Amino acid sequence: GIDQSSVRERVTLTSGEREEGGMAEQRRALLPFLQRAEEVQKVEPRIAYYCRLYAVEEGLKLQNRDKAIDELLFSVMDKLESYKSKNALVPEEDKLQLEGFALKIFDRADRVDRAGRADMSTCKAFYAASVFMEVCTQFGDLDEDLLGKQKYAAWKAADIRKAIREGRKPTVGSGVLEKNYEAGDKVVCKEGESALPVEGAVLSAMGSTFLVSLPSGTKELKGTQLAVLARPGSTVIYTKDGKEEEGKVLSMDTTVWPPSYEVEKASGGTISTEEEHIRVTAPAPTPPAPTPPANLAAMDLGRKPEPVAPPPAPASPASAPPMAMPSSPAAAPPPKAVPGYVPSLLQMNDAQRQAKVAVSSLGFQDYKSAIDYLHKA
Q: Pick from 162, 172, 227, 359: most CB atoms within 10 A?
């Protein structure tokens, strides 16, 4: 609750010097909350109380308040004290009631919008929902879901209003990527901010969350924690500005999140893009498991290679000549540096691109492709 006498003192102390022309701006900062309070006063007086309380808290933050704003704040505080004297406040329960009310307004507007029937009433409903969600912040920071809906509602209200003013039909939904994975889809998952991305497979979809099979077990993850798995060599359809074009994935960069994909377009040239612009039509062929030479295996395991016994020689006449053993192929010599040679900027950029694809290939244990791209670099 608020102590009316102490708040009145704060109003007086923080008013400071008056500035001409600031009253309209200051009123605009408070009116959204006071208007929502008036709208729900008869049906939800408790919601109206918290809208007015939030308006007072925001009003106290204003610098150089106009005298009319102070009078407005005093008037609102009188209403707050009147309600508080007759009703018990239970912050924990009131928080849930306010959040539930805000979500009810949001869901109603969202259903109308996704049915393609958005109008100015839908615009006002989205705006009201965003205001009620902002009022919820007086109980503490909004959780991720509510914060996302608060931002979306404010954006959607502006988007619908703009469409109506321009004489066009409002865009249905967000107009941006909505995750729509199906059972069996291969994905890359990032469980936490500091976690490394791992591969997984979608088992089932549950609205905006997905049940995913991971190396560590089955987990329920949000769409924002998933991205489509597109290994180098995958065939994709690249979409931009309503135009579609086939392409091949050269690399998938998971050092950033959401990941970025480097795609070589069929028409020529490469583009760095995000998941919303690609659709995998054919996954990359699975490379055969490489058989590293004995000395490489020894390096990996930190021990000396064990000698491999030769197969027993078949019985043959004493006069039979000994079998000739094939010699090991000589390793390809490294390229020789040309004295005084300076590569062009285009060549350097191409070398960097080939090296980047090699690193991406290593991330998928495709050693053969990695070696090929390093040779090209």
A: 227
